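Please check this today:
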Amino acid sequence: MTVPNKGPAARGRQSVVLPDPAKDKLLFEAIRSAEVAEYVRRHGGVNRVGQVS
């Protein structure tokens, strides 16, 4: 699973991924409360890149 983000960006010459604080908060709360399965059911668990094997 990938932490929700706003996508790639550049900071100077560095490539970075910008976090999405509002969506991150939902995931981190699910982790804290041991409700990750429910989070995935509601919000999905696949990103645009696909699965890592």
Notes: The radius of gyration is 13 Å. The helical segments are 21-32, 36-43.
